[in-house]
Design goal:
229 residues, alpha+beta, Muramoyl-pentapeptide Carboxypeptidase, domain 2, binds zinc ion
Length: 229
């Protein structure tokens, strides 16, 4: 009887320690992600997805890593399922290519840092104001920034770099830039291919950034999902 109690005691202590160790592994962003309903690691649903979160490196317009140890693409389960469909469409028509994600869920805390950098500058129009009605759809895990990659994982040429703040990144100017010789036919064709696979899966493109796609409209997003703090 005594021995059984000891065993039970060890079991309880072990359980407490493992819970503590697990909780200890989660930093601010990771803890907020696991507390947000519906958030999943997109790579689990889309194993062929390539991920290179630009905000988890210094290669971004802020010039520093603002994601810390968040290096995976987290999205709402609905958005991840749509991304799996987009990957399947791409596989059917261009099996040698893959999707390469640059940004997925973006916590509001990071949105605030970005807003601080661009507020009052000409970059302001490219970053959602965290104090606006919706904020950024990225804050809910319903938006994804991505490109197409070749078999070596190298991004294809879509005319500009990710987060290029200028006209050449804006789909609404594509045709006039093509006519003016400022974008080439292969660059525009690559954009059309990306837009085709994403819209076939139900994503909505925007007119100001070729890399950005929403899983739902702003009002649907606010209604269905919660922001990651
Ligand atoms: Zn975006």
């Amino acid at each position: 009887m005594k021995r059984w109690k000891w065993t039970r005691g060890f079991f309880v202590v072990g359980l407490l320690l493992s819970t503590w160790a697990w909780a200890g592994q989660k930093t601010g962003i990771e803890a907020n992600l696991s507390a947000t309903p519906g958030m999943v690691d997109a790579s689990v649903k889309v194993p062929e997805l390539k991920v290179e979160l630009k905000y988890s490196t210094a290669d971004n317009f802020i010039g520093k890593d603002v994601y810390g140890d968040m290096e995976r693409c987290y999205l709402q389960a609905d958005a991840a399922a749509m991304l799996a469909k987009a990957a399947a469409v791409l596989k059917r028509i261009r099996p040698e290519l893959s999707l390469l994600a640059y940004d997925c869920v973006r916590p509001v805390s990071v949105q605030r840092q970005m807003w601080k950098v661009v507020k009052g500058t000409k970059m302001q129009g490219y970053v959602a104001n965290p104090n606006s009605k919706t904020g950024s759809i990225h804050n809910y895990g319903c938006a994804v920034d991505l490109t197409l990659a070749d078999p070596q994982g190298k991004p294809l040429d879509l005319g500009t770099a990710f987060d290029f703040f200028g006209k050449a990144a804006q789909p609404r100017h594509e045709l006039s830039l093509l006519r003016a010789g400022k974008l080439t036919e292969p660059q525009v064709a690559n954009r059309l291919l990306l837009r085709y696979v994403m819209t076939e899966a139900g994503f909505q493109p925007i007119s100001s950034e070729w890399w950005h796609f929403n899983c739902a409209s702003p009002s649907q997003t606010r209604r269905k999902y919660k922001k990651v703090p």
